[in-house]
Amino acid sequence: xxxxxxxYKRYLIIxxxxxxxxxxxxxxxRILEILDEEGFQVSPSMFEKDLEAMRxxxxxxxxxxxxxxxxxxxxxxxxxxxxxxxxxxxxxTIYGALNQLALFQNTAAFRNxxxxxxxxxxxxxxxxxxxxxxxxxxxxxxxxxxxSGSEWIAPIYDAIVERQRITFMFSLFAVHHNHTIEPxxxxxxxxxxxxxxxxDEKEAVYGLDRISNLNTSDQYFAFDRQFRDNLHxxxxxxxxxxxFTKRNHGVRIFYDNSVADEILTTKINETQEVIARDxxxxxxxxxxxxxxxxxxxxxxxxxxxxxVIWPPFVIDSVIKILQNILRKxxxxxxxxxxxxxxxxxxxxx
Length: 349
What we know:
SH3 type barrels
């Protein structure tokens, strides 16, 4: 019969008391008193059953000293140890936590925690690398550990913990800039990761998929608790709007009738409003933080069914992205043209 949680707690209280002053036997009366102080009113018969379980089930070397004046219980082995066994639920929780944290497996903090868990689990003869036997898998979840920018998760995490500046190159719309920031947080939105921190005493955010050549500086920064608290407040109350360094812009986009209903239902942004509609489609206006991510989510998925009307710099951004896409297919066009070119013919005189 499985041992209930209260029994384990009683065993642990008895064990800890017997471990104190190992050479001094502890009387039954004193042990019962200790149990009572911890909230367990145990009868003498139950106490004897607990001792029997501790001896037979867990192999604890509990002996009884029978001298009249110093009679009591003690451990015959000074190196004895006792751990409360983990239930299946606890083990499953640990596996789940490690699975969720797989993204951070290369960070110093994770390595330290994993080493400690492995020591505990080895005591219980549980292999962290081995799936639980006899458990049918019904939820097929795999942490997304490989994505553009995933290699920066670990060094940024460690830099945040150690309060070290990081330097990197950030690329957006084919423009490259070097940055040095004091990192305070990592944020995931819809499968994309961002680092947030202070740059020139201002809040800054950068998508990890646009970062290259990241290095952790030997320079440490002074932790600003108020800055951190303000940043965390914005993270908790933001809905994807992460670029604090740029102001929003109004944008106008035309959507063909074939996708208009979807746009009006799902909305590209909460500020979205219809400013025109006819038999061809709908024109919406939205006040948004315009970056490449916005263009890729609000314009490109709809192909020729969407057209940015204003402002001009967003139109240029869309054109640049489409030109880059077309260039990737230039060699396919060349192959097609060669394939379709009629053979040379020789004319007789």
